[in-house]
Amino acid sequence: MRRRQRGMILLSAIVLVALAAVVTTALFFDTGMAERRSAANFGMEQALQFGRGTEAVAAYALTEDRDQFDTPYDSWATPLPPQEVMPGQSIEAQVVDLQGRFNLNSLVNSNDERDENAHKVFVRLLELLELEPRWADMVGDWIDPDVQPSPEGGEDSLYTSQKPPYRAANMAISSISELMELPGFTREMYVRLAPHVTALPPTVRAINVCMADGFVLDALFALSTSSPGHTEFSLLTVEELADRRRQGCFPRRAVITANEEAMQAMAIERSYWFRLHTWVRIGTAQFALYSLLNRDNGNQVRPYARSFGTE
User: Fold this and answer.
1) Are residues 174 and 208 both part of a single domain?
2) What are the beta bridge partners of residue 114?
3) 141 and 119 inside one domain
4) For the chain, how big is the Rg over CA atoms in Å?
5) Minimal CA–CA distance to 99: which of 135, 132, 62?
6) Digitized pLDDT (tens) for each residue of the chain, 311 residues in all
7) Do 107 and 94 share a structural domain?
8) DSSP-assigned beta bridge partners for residue 127
9) Number of structural domains, the chain?
10) Do the Cβ atoms of 167 and 160 come closer than 8 Å?
11) Are residues 131 and 113 both part of a single domain?
């Protein structure tokens, strides 16, 4: 009996030790996870504050720029190389002009109808990029609030037949990545079109000719009554176009629009919408803050929207 009792006591002790080890491991694991979550949250908050500080610096640079036109050589357009804020923490930033691109939301006017001039420009841009013009109808139908498809577009009947089914947005897009929702629009097409388009409020219809690339400049000539098929600037390399802009705005609005009223309405020389890219590195983590900045006629700059992500 004594031997049996000693055996039971030993077995009980082993079980108790095992349970204690399991409980201790769980406590250590939970504590470690809590510490990591706290560190991650603190890092995110710290990165956001760094990003907001960078916004203030970018806003100051844009406010101080009081020239009548913007060029890629303005001080605000110079990228900020990595700057060490504290040991192991650095910031890198760049301001990108968005009005040198075609605003996809301008395809639909304030009456929720297709804007013919914007449609012509986008069709020409697609042709210059060797993409099918039908995508202009597809994007227009994705944005407009009605359910009547354009000749080469599509509404809910098209999207509900996809797997999995979904519906057309029927509202202004907030990111050009929504192009990937169009059936048949491939990643290759997106990469080709993305550098030339943007998603701004629908009321933003004008393109800054001092900042636009050659393809967007040539697309504007779709509104010309004398040379709608004009192709000149798109033949220039990025370096050639940049060299011509070292001395100021090129091409000048008055030169390329001449007496073309439709072109004049869609061409400007000063930008009001920008995107600030801020990359914050804290230890081994990298955070990215994307800020949409608006500069009004009084030269005041304010953030319009933000998106925050990690890499």
Assistant:
1) yes
2) 108
3) yes
4) 28
5) 62
6) 555 555 676 777 777 777 777 777 777 766 667 666 666 666 778 888 888 899 999 999 999 998 899 999 999 999 999 999 888 889 999 999 999 999 999 999 989 899 999 999 999 999 999 999 999 999 999 999 998 999 999 999 999 999 999 999 999 999 999 999 999 999 999 999 999 999 999 999 999 999 999 999 999 999 998 888 889 999 999 999 999 999 899 999 999 988 899 999 999 999 999 999 999 988 778 889 999 999 999 999 999 998 877 44
7) no
8) none
9) 2
10) yes
11) yes
Considering the domain architecture, whether residues 27 and 106 belong to the same structural domain is answered as no
Q: How far apart are CA 11 and CA 287, in angstroms?
A: 53
Residues 140 and 53 in one domain: no
Statement to judge: residues 53 and 173 lie in one domain: no
What gap in Å lies between CA 215 and CA 250, rounded to an integer?
Answer: 14
Same domain, 34 and 88: yes
The residue among 106, 120, 139 whose CA lies nearest residue 219 is 120
Q: Which domain holds residue 132?
A: 102-268
CATH of the domain at 129: 1.10.40.60
Of residues 183, 104, 123, 113, the one with CA closest to residue 148: 113
pTM above 0.70, yes or no: yes
Query: How many residues make up the chain in this entry?
Result: 311
